């Protein structure tokens, strides 16, 4: 074939740069994820197991409660794309939508953080026309006719049936069977939003932060059960029933086998509680030896294993796997404030990364959809959702830092600097700069009022522009 003909063939072929050849390698079959090698942590089994760990374990429960409370206190804000009037109007509209839903924004964020327990959380985005209190539409604080968010409806992890994937392995939807009717429903990803703790292999189920804690939790649970049984047996004694040798023979009659099984069941069920009591036949052989006898056998001395130390070790392993072993510092004889501060800082950083995941997903997919429904197809100049820090700064450390900045020559009278420092310290309004003392009255001719804001003359107070407020 001539060289120019080969060139024409190459032009006719689609370039591989614009389509996928390979796959992510996610192990799944017919929409069911099979990445996990433990059967107890696959599919619906994993949801049940993580729920048990969350609801029954005090260490895990304490860590998750701390996480929820830290996330709830975070500040959420909207940043305009630039300083133009249009960008500021878009940012104001987005903030209105955030606070015009059926449920408060922070409750939605709290539900979204359930991804840390199960590895993922999925929401269906429901819209509404902002028509105020119109009879045939959902309530809105605004009546401008724009399309806003009605709610982010959680589609719980235990309602998941399977996932829908495209031919090249991309997630395109979720099938669920939710209570009370358990009817199959399909929710396309284009109508929902998926939050994940991990995007390895583009796995829609992410990875639970309880996954690495599972082994320690499993052994701790078993050890606690054994410890409880051991305490009960040591306090009450182990039931021992003496029976005639004939009923223990391999060729025992059916009646003797039934008697032996009844005695075995009696030994298993015998407990020293308010219903304790036992009735046995007073039977003796020809030599006046009692045929049936019941005793409680007790142990002497201490056990060779300290179960309390083993359980404490497992507790520490569970907390460490969640970067939250600071919850155990007060229960130990060692540890310092500096160590606790370092550990909580690491925990807060991890939570901040999960919150970044939420904002990234909303900024990339949910906000562009909202503005597209309102007629704005250009998604390159949209406002962004942001979140603040979840851990406040120690005031003593902040004071030392500010003192160092002042010594270095930083202008602390700058409005932006003052507002930031006030926010870090938890002060609602910016720090007011007080005038220097003037015992000789040399500043009397200048307009530097010192009184409360809102009054004239000496009782007035300067506003942020340095002029007197009326």
User: Helices and strands, in N-to-C order?
Assistant: HEEHHEHHHEEEEEEHEHEHHEHH
Ends: how far apart? Answer: 90 Å
The largest β sheet comes out as:
3 strands, antiparallel
As a whole number of angstroms, the C-alpha radius of gyration is 34 Å
Counting DSSP H or I runs of 4 or more residues, the number of helices is: 12
Number of strands: 12
Which runs of at least 5 residues are low in confidence (pLDDT < 50)?
Answer: 430-436, 442-470
Question: Concise description?
Answer:
By secondary structure, the chain is an alpha+beta fold. The protein has helices spanning 3-12, 43-56, 58-72, 85-98, 105-112, 115-118, 214-236, 254-269, 307-321, 337-373, 395-407, 415-425; strands at 28-29, 32-33, 76-79, 120-129, 147-155, 160-165, 171-177, 184-188, 192-196, 238-242, 293-297, 384-387. A hairpin with a 5-residue loop joins strand 6 and strand 7.
